[in-house]
Amino acid sequence: MKKLNVLEEVISVDNGNDRIYVTDGGVYVRDVTLNLGIGDEVMVAHLPDVHFNYCNLDDYDEGNPVVLSTGANRKWLSNGASIPKLRNCLTIVDDADGHVFNGDTLDYLSKGAMYLMDKEIWEKVPGAMATIGGHERAMQMQGKVSETGTIEDRYKILEKYWPHDIYYYSKLIKNKVMVVGYCNDRAYITPEALEKFKADLEKCRANGYYMIMFAHEPVATQNPDHKEYGIDRVLTEGDPSGSPWNFCDGFILGGSRGDATSKEFYDILVNSADVIKGMFAGHYHNDMHLEINAKLPDGTETVIPQYISTAVAYGEGHVMRILIK
Ligand SMILES: [Fe+2]
Ligand SMILES: [Fe+2]
């Protein structure tokens, strides 16, 4: 992992294994180190919440009133203002072994936003992985015209557009670390995702690989201290909307929502702390570290670290480098 020029230290916690600073280019960088004794180094870049807000000529040609009304009324990051921030971040992580764009990459489902994702992500970062957030499957985002189709209709568009499975996708890096990107939108897991997850865990156990997992939203921690968790300025300045949140067992995977498949996925997850060594999320536009109460397969109680990153789209850009040693 390359050394960066530090302009200002922001915070360093967990014995320096979770450190945030500003580079001389004004980009916020958060370096998280997982010391697992893998006998090698793997670096994964975490890039949640890019929020491409853009309508192009194809949107105007198609004339979908829902999308065009959003394009006219949604001002935050309009006209693709995220681009320079993302480019700054990508320069910092150009030596990463893997890149995960962890949801809300599209600010809303427009052809213009997908065009920007093609140009700035799929074409520039070969092998990139991207999860789905709540924004990807919305066409109305402060627009005055209500959605006409269903969420499922919009998922179908995303399934066709995305270069990989949007519900569960995994990649093995350097024969050491399995990187998983899955969709936990509305706390639901598909039956196919559950089967793929079980197979990957078996593969990890059989071969001695570790797993790190990415989804747009964090999972329930089952820690009562997280029941009313205020999220303004946890580690860095962020968006406090809706705070405090219930990260213990609230409206997230493993909390108050989800069907039997989703509950099974979560149960397996929290009982696989021998393999799963880190969970990573975005969505809250804040930097946090909220450990999940978990167990080893023999029942021993432990925790799985869960890191929540702020948005790429803030300031000159924010990016997390995960170093697994
Ligand atoms: Fe977001
Ligand atoms: Fe989100």
What does this structure look like?
This protein is an alpha/beta fold. It has one domain (6-324): GpdQ, beta-strand dimerisation domain (Transcription Regulator spoIIAA, 2-Layer Sandwich). It has helices at residues 57-62, 65-73, 83-92, 111-122, 151-161, 191-207, 260-270, and strands spanning 6-13, 18-23, 28-34, 42-46, 98-102, 129-131, 168-173, 177-182, 210-214, 276-281, 288-289, 292-295, 301-304, 306-308, 318-324. The strands form 3 sheets. A 7-stranded mixed β-sheet has the order 1-2-3-15-4-5-6. A 6-stranded mixed β-sheet has the order 7-8-9-10-14-11, with helices on one face. Helix 6 packs parallel to helix 7. Bound molecules: fe (ii) ion (2 copies).
Features:
6-stranded mixed β-sheet, 7 helices, globular, alpha/beta, 7-stranded mixed β-sheet, 325 residues, binds fe (ii) ion, Transcription Regulator spoIIAA
Main structural class: alpha/beta
Per the CATH scheme, the topology name is: Transcription Regulator spoIIAA
Order of helices and strands: EEEEHHHEHEHEEHEHEEEEEE
Number of domains: 1
Shape: globular
* CATH secondary-structure class: Alpha Beta
Write a short abstract of this structure:
The protein is an alpha/beta fold and 325 residues long. The protein contains 7 helices and 15 strands.
Write the layout of secondary structure elements.
Blueprint: E1 6-13, E2 18-23, E3 28-34, E4 42-46, H1 57-62, H2 65-73, H3 83-92, E5 98-102, H4 111-122, E6 129-131, H5 151-161, E7 168-173, E8 177-182, H6 191-207, E9 210-214, H7 260-270, E10 276-281, E11 288-289, E12 292-295, E13 301-304, E14 306-308, E15 318-324
Parallel strand pairs: 3-15, 4-5, 5-6, 8-9, 9-10, 10-14
Antiparallel strand pairs: 1-2, 2-3, 4-15, 7-8, 11-14, 12-13
Bound molecules: fe (ii) ion (2 copies).
